[in-house]
Amino acid sequence: MLSILQAAGWPIWPLLLASILAVALIIERLVALRRVKVVPPGLLQRVVGEFRKNGATTAMITDLEAHSPLGRVLAAGLRNESSSREIMKESIEEAGSVASHDLERYLTTLGTIASISPLMGLFGTVVGMIEIFGSQAPSGSNPIQLAHGISVALYNTGFGLLIAIPSMIFWRHFRALVSSFVVDMQQQAVRLVEVLHGERKS
Fold first, then answer.
1. Residue 5 confidence (pLDDT)
2. Element (H or E) spanning 28, and its range?
3. N or C: which end of the chain has fewer CB within 10 A?
């Protein structure tokens, strides 16, 4: 591995840093964007059951807010359970916007890495080409410098693509996952509003 890094030259170091950052972000988002943590199954039913038994108590709302993103959205509705349907929906939408922003955390950075990694690899390719042309002299070319320039060009191009492809795949996957979570939270929030206003039983 060290010999590859030496052959790739100094342009590989920014790419190596980008790869470490991309892996860290992917692992963090894989852990954070689990359905059981974002939209826990059965949470709405439990909230409706507790509300019908004890009403919207402060303890229940506080527990919901600390539970999950869906819990924060439902808690916003419960805080305004005595208000009109419009006010309740507005508070839920505000909480949903904050939850959506939290779910999209670091995705911009991951998308940026996916976009610039090929460009960083291309930059390394240009550096390698410059070294290749620099090895040309009236008396002939320097084989060692020529080989080094080719190594810099090829390694950086390949490493840039190696970072960009999985980063782009995971970025698109996480974006789709967040969108599905937001839709799910919206649907469950609407059901809660209808239950609180007596428009449906569960």
1. 62
2. helix 12-32
3. N
Cα–Cα distance for residue pair 170/172, rounded to 1 Å = 5
Structure-token pair, residue 79: 């805080």
Give the C-alpha separation, 104 to 94, whole Å.
16
Spatial neighbors of 20 by CB under 8 A, at least 6 apart, are none
Half-sphere exposure of 25 (CA within 13 A, CB side): 25
Q: Coil, helix or strand for 68?
A: coil
CA-CA-CA-CA dihedral for 161, 123, 171, 109, to nearest 10: 150
Q: What are the pLDDT digits (tens) for 119-147?
A: 998 888 888 888 777 666 555 566 677 77
Enumerate residues 6+ apart whose C-beta is below 8 A from 109.
Answer: 21, 25
DSSP string spanning 126-161?
Answer: HHHHHHHHHT--TT---HHHHHHHHHHHHHHHHHHH
The predicted model scores a pTM of: 0.82
User: Which of 103, 50, 107, 53 is closest to 73 using CA atoms?
Assistant: 103
CA 57 to centroid of chain Cα atoms: 34
The whole-number pLDDT of residue 167 equals 96
CB within 8 A of 130, min separation 6: which ones?
Answer: 149
Cα–Cα distance for residue pair 171/47, rounded to 1 Å: 33
Comparing 18 with 152, the larger pLDDT belongs to 18
